[in-house]
User: Fold this.
Amino acid sequence: MDMVLKSKPKARRTDAGMTLIEVLVATTVLGLALLALAPMFTSAVRTNASANQLTNANTLAREKLEELSGYLRSDPRLAVASPNNASGPTTTSVGTGSVVGVNTWCQNDLPRWYNPQTGATSTAATRPGVAWFSYPYTRTYTVEQFGADLVTRIVAPAPYVVKVITVTVRPTSGPFPGLRTSRQALILRLRDA
Assistant:
């Protein structure tokens, strides 16, 4: 007796893989999704640069306030000349009822130029060289004198109780020059007042 082995016919495979059209459609959908996300990356970079600029401005303002708080109240850097009740870098008004005199110490004390390759700075009136760039911030401050009620402005040389120092740091370049201005104040009280 001969045995005959029957073989089963091969089953057709239906899951043979992705077709070319399916790959093209998936690639198109992925490309459109990435294009929709691209503006978010640009916005994130701008926001990060703006936050960095504001952080630097705040740090420069705090640094100047720390420096000024260590001086004697009679120091020329905190002086208000007679017959004024405030001093600043220019003769502009500080607030209502203020008579502002110019104090050269209050003018910008940051360098005008810097070299990012060496870290060097310069206060020269003109650009020192090709590798030099304009310093990205200016820093000024004002000094105001007030009486014991902390409202009445005191005209020098009359005795005062507190001095209010306001430091202003303005960006001169970057993503939003001038918009990220930092203005911080410090109240200095006389010791025996």
In short: The mean pLDDT is 85. The helical segments are 20-69.
